[in-house]
């Protein structure tokens, strides 16, 4: 095998997930690229998420004769093809005209769970229809920013239920919108003409689905979540957990899972990298409810590290947007396929028959003094 081949995207098809980013950047309006790529304030957390994975080392086991790994995973009582979920990301029409429909088809054809964003540019019913047409058993979770107007929140929940979504993902790290220097500089605060948040459309003429209609409020509390719990039989996942105590409260209130997330570094800057905070959250609730993680997952080895520490699954945000931008449905399929194949390869090299065979002893922290 030669080792001269350049892996740069200029040489042909991308060979790694990261190689999709510069390709997407070439295609996107620079203002929209900044929106997708950016993080809050100094983007310290944005960088920290990826850097923390690089500081962890995998310690493989040898000669265990495990054969080819099986990636199938149970999440919230249902089987999924792999422990890699599509994180909710808003505004897919900025990336590709097929928008969330393409993402949903790609997730469905890969057998992966898509978390549809409340702020999607295609209505949840249409996203669900696209997914189901591709695979009858496609699983869609619905991400919700709980609105203080609980009547409106309930209307959204009913739409998600009626569309066949099988879980609600409540984003809890956004009592205010993160400040993005890039968006401020670009004066990007709403969608361009002709695009709206389809799930926010209402019959009122002054509410045609503008981003500014979204209520991100510091008044939101566990009380709202309790009311949501009483409102629906769907499993509820709390996204944006960093403090172990919050994970404990979520479990006490009957939540079905939590996602350790700092919103991809887009909310409070200087929060810890998610993978460094994961063990603390797992120590608090890991034996009670599944703990997922997102932020900075770019390689199968990153997935394996999070799983080895005890995550039930990971979610990916920006890589999906890059794939969508570059190739619509096919681009997202390629990105998901790469992560799946890299995870399978990593498990093989670690001597594991499946994600469940990874354990904490197989991850070591690289000591920077060595
Ligand atoms: C462009 C973009 C839009 C996002 N929109 C949402 C959203 O509407 N709701 C939400 O809960 N999280 C949103 N997120 C956060 C993601 O769900 C996820 O936490 C984050 O992207 C994970 O980090 P990663 O991009 O490094 O994979 C968004 C992230 C990005 C990059
Ligand atoms: C009001 C836009 C919020 C979408 C979002 O969550 C993000 O861009 O991170």
From TrEMBL:
Q: Does the entry feature the keyword Hydrolase, yes or no?
A: no
- What InterPro entries does UniProt report for this protein, alphabetically? Aldolase_TIM, Alpha-hydoxy_acid_DH_FMN, FMN-dep_DH, FMN_HAD, FMN_hydac_DH_AS
- Give the source's domain of life in one word: Bacteria
The entry's keywords: Flavoprotein, FMN, Oxidoreductase
Q: What residues bind glyoxylate, as annotated? A: 35, 145, 263, 266
GO MF annotations in UniProt = FMN binding; oxidoreductase activity, acting on CH-OH group of donors
Q: Which Pfam families match?
A: FMN_dh
CDD domains, per the entry = alpha_hydroxyacid_oxid_FMN
SUPFAM superfamilies (UniProt xref): FMN-linked oxidoreductases
The FMN hydroxy acid dehydrogenase domain extends over: 9-368
- Give the binding site residues for FMN: 88-90, 143, 171, 239, 261, 294-298, 317-318
What family is this? Belongs to the FMN-dependent alpha-hydroxy acid dehydrogenase family.
Q: What is the protein's given name?
A: Alpha-hydroxy-acid oxidizing enzyme
